[in-house]
Amino acid sequence: MPRKDHVPPDGRVLRWMTGILAAALILGIFILDVVTDRVIAVAVLYIIPILLSLRSFSPARVMGLAGACVILTMLGSPLTRSGMTEAGMVNLAISLIAIVTTGYLGLRMLAHEAASHEARAHMRRLSRIGNLGELASSIAHEVNQPLAAIASSAGACRRWLDASPPDLVKARESLDRISRDAARAGDVVAGVRRLASRKPSMSDRADMVELVEECVAIARAELDRQQIRLDLTLPDDGAAVWGDRVQIQQIVVNLIINAIESVAQNGAAERRILLTLAQQAGFVTLTVADTGPGLSREAVGHLWEPFWTSKDGGMGLGLTISRTIAEAHGGALECRPRGGRGAVFELRLPLTPAPGHA
What's the rounded Cα separation, in Å, for the pair 257 and 237? Predict the structure, then answer.
């Protein structure tokens, strides 16, 4: 039987539950404030429902909730019969300051988090650009680790040779590590050059189940932040393909991120992505279906054209590069409307080596 993974619960239900809990807390705090002695600043507890609402309510609703807590605090003070009036006024001031400060700092925190998420989303878009700037950046990033290892091994080799007496065995081991890391750096450069020149990639067996799970893990934080439900169906017996693992991962991540951006336009209750992996007629087929607004006629006509995009700030290269990689692996990347609403992207990769592959 296929394995299924459901995440996370419906956002609308979560908001209703949070609202009911916040209302119950506010009512309970108000009653407790009225019946408790004035020397006890019970109204400070209003910060609890405010903090509880930050993750589920819009900024406007959080401000409204904080305003309601301020009003109830001011109403509760004169209704309290026991205790010293002077102490009650001091506690009233403390409670109001605490409520207003908590609401303000909470909204500021959410604003900073939103700015941080937007910056990360922008970086993800930039990371999928296949122009010369990204090519140079990719080479620099990927080669940095083997170069750092080479420098470290060279330093170790010098120390072993400078020892008295020189430790030639350790020095040879350092030289062997330098040779391996230099070969690794060369493989990285060759791989990026193959992708840029559209030459066949250096293929090996890649477990698509494992690869897809890694890609979902990469996108997990964004799925949870956007309150998107992901239905993941994977075969129990695995699905190995021939191809360049990094390049195939680039396609899968691109399709998931595109689906996230599409369904994010919906209400929280309608945000859903269905990701299915199956073997069909000598191919492994990965289907990514979303419940977004779907593709317009204009988008369908230009979908695979480079530098065409329907997104604000998009570069229009992600799908073009993904299709080029799929075809270079002897596979295909297609798109079709989803029944009712949304779009379906289908990636097919051969189970056996395609012509021209190692």
Answer: 27
